[in-house]
Amino acid sequence: DAGVIQSPRHEVTEMGQEVTLRCKPISGHDYLFWYRQTMMRGLELLIYFNNNVPIDDSGMPEDRFSAKMPNASFSTLKIQPSEPRDSAVYFCASSPQGQTMNTEAFFGQGTRLTVV
Amino acid sequence: ELKVEQNPLFLSMQEGKNYTIYCNYSTTSDRLYWYRQDPGKSLESLFVLLSNGAVKQEGRLMASLDTKARLSTLHITAAVHDLSATYFCAVAQGAQKLVFGQGTRLTINP
Question: pLDDT at residue A102 above 90?
Answer without folding.
Answer: no
